[in-house]
Specification:
This protein is of the alpha/beta class and about 300 residues long. Helix content is about 35%, strand content about 30%. It contains eleven helices and 14 strands. A six-stranded mixed sheet has the order 6-7-8-3-9-10, with helices on both faces. Helix 3 packs across helix 4. The longest helix has 15 residues. The two termini are about 30 Å apart.
Length: about 300
């Protein structure tokens, strides 16, 4: 694995911000890192980057202990913080060359041009950073995070301030990067987790409360499989209740019904067969899905 966190603890005076958190992040995946404000996720990310020391536990990045071999571990990490710090009086290209020099990149010109192209900064390369919109400043921050080709990318709210078209482009870039690197992505846009991430962890009040693949999370917390069905005419609820695997029938009004079954059962085929058998005309049939937002609210209320 690229990142291994074990029993991580961080205290601010008497307040415990991170409380015995353990997880791993692997190469070739995008890991969503979620939690309400003040949950401890930004503190955890800063510890992984070496920006903050921990009070307990261990963090390994690409096999290097962040406390014992800090410089080697930091060299493996690209970091885009939530509040993107940039030199606003520098030009985009100039700033990226400056960053390349800090990393000791051997062929800075080619690398800088590659990053400008990958982050869509071609038409803004000669502009001062202070003249850019917030969305394009985010792109500059993402370019600097990727400039030294790190094995681990830690992105805190990377699509903040982007317009809808830019969000789609940056999400695709993150997904592409996730095929070859380890990406830890923190975001408040929960739909973004479903669109981009392979796995998610949720932290609440400093404690880890969920750690699983996106689909696995939905199955764990759904409890039941819910199907909504609509007919052109009235249907007897008792007949619906007799369909195999149906556990509960709820009248939604206007000839619409919600049927519940066990989480591992899909009753849509049986419903279709029921309609054919009794010559009912279906106008609606779909399975309800639990979103990451639903799960997040359950775990962090």
């Amino acid at each position: 694995m690229s990142v291994k966190v074990q029993h991580l603890v961080k205290n601010y005076d008497v307040q415990r911000a991170v409380d015995d958190v353990s997880f791993e992040a692997h190469k070739g995946e995008v890991l969503g890192f979620l939690g309400p404000n003040g949950a401890g996720k930004t503190t955890t990310m800063k510890i992984i980057t070496g920006y903050l020391p921990q009070n307990g536990g261990t963090v390994e990045v690409c096999g290097y202990d962040i406390a014992e071999k800090s410089m080697q571990a930091r060299a493996c990490v690209g970091y885009l913080p939530e509040h993107n710090p940039l030199y606003k009086d520098m030009y985009v290209r100039e700033y990226l060359f400056f960053t390349a020099g800090l990393h000791g990149i051997s062929k800075p010109r080619k690398r800088v041009e590659d990053m400008i192209e990958r982050t869509g900064l071609q038409s803004h390369r000669q502009k001062q950073i202070g003249e850019l919109s917030k969305g394009y400043r985010q792109r500059v921050g993402l370019a600097q995070a990727m400039l030294h080709d790190p094995q681990v990318l830690i992105l805190d709210e990377p699509t903040s301030g982007l317009d809808p078209n830019q969000i789609v482009e940056i999400r695709q870039l993150i997904k592409d990067l996730g095929r070859e690197k380890t990406v830890i992505l923190s975001t408040h846009i929960l739909g973004e987790v479903e669109a981009v991430c392979d796995r998610a962890i949720i932290i609440n009040k400093g404690k880890l409360v969920a750690n699983a693949g996106i689909q696995e999370l939905k199955q764990q917390f759904s409890g039941q499989s819910l199907v909504t069905v609509g007919f052109t005419a009235a249907v007897d609820a008792a007949k619906l209740a007799q369909i195999p695997d149906v556990q509960q029938v709820k009248d939604l009004g206007k000839n619409r019904w919600q049927l519940a079954a066990a989480a591992d059962r899909d009753i849509r085929a049986a419903l279709f067969a029921f309609a054919v058998q009794h010559q009912y005309t279906l106008i609606e049939l779909h399975k309800e899905t639990f979103s990451v937002e639903d799960i997040f609210q359950q775990l962090t209320k």
